[in-house]
Amino acid sequence: MLNQTRVFLCGLLVSVNFVASAQNPAPKHPPAAILNRCEGSNSDLAGVNQIAGRDGLIIAIARLGDGERSRQLNRRRLHNVRTFLAEFWNRDPTTVITAEGDKVKGHGRIDLYVRGELILALAVRHNGDLLVGSCVGPDRNLYPYLGKTKVLVKELAR
């Protein structure tokens, strides 16, 4: 009799919790886009990397902002996300899925999803690259320095 009462009470508790959660679903508001400098973007991407785990997928969707027209901007921003995670955090690049999304109002941004949930939105300065990596010197594998080795050699020689 005592076991039946326990089972009944446990079932009642579970059903009350289920009904309460169904009536009050968690809000699905996207996080506000964060406009960071290099160090902040590095830290935010490291956090997303940790949330995803070693084998989890990270989906990065780049969106142009007001007055931005070049799809190349999105490609450069996505390149920096994938390359930063692969080279600085030894993440398998195939676990970072990239895509372009619709334009947004305000700053361009990169939305980062883990397990289908929007975890973070990184805003990017108007017509600018997502600055990540070495924040004190040129990093040849990331934009805006990618492909500018001759210019960098001259700058470093000064």
How much helicity do the residues have?
Answer: 40-55%
Structural class: alpha/beta
The CATH architecture term is 3-Layer(aba) Sandwich
Radius of gyration in whole Å, from Cα?
22 Å
Number of DSSP-assigned strands: 5
* Biggest sheet, spatial arrangement of strands: 1-5-4-2-3
Percentage beta strand:
15-25%
Number of self-contained structural domains = 1
N→C terminal distance: 87 Å
Q: Quick one: CATH class? A: Alpha Beta
Describe the protein's architecture and organization.
The chain is α/β, with parallel strands linked by helices. The protein has a single domain, classed as Glutaredoxin, CATH 3.40.30. 41% of the residues lie in helices and 18% in strands. The chain has 4 helices and 5 strands. The protein has helices spanning 2-23, 38-52, 71-89, 149-157, and strands at residues 34-35, 58-63, 96-100, 108-114, 117-124. A 5-stranded mixed β-sheet has the order 1-5-4-2-3, with helices on one face. Strand 4 and strand 5 (117-124) form a beta hairpin. Helix 2 crosses helix 3 (71-89). Mean pLDDT is 79; it is low at 2-27 and 151-158.
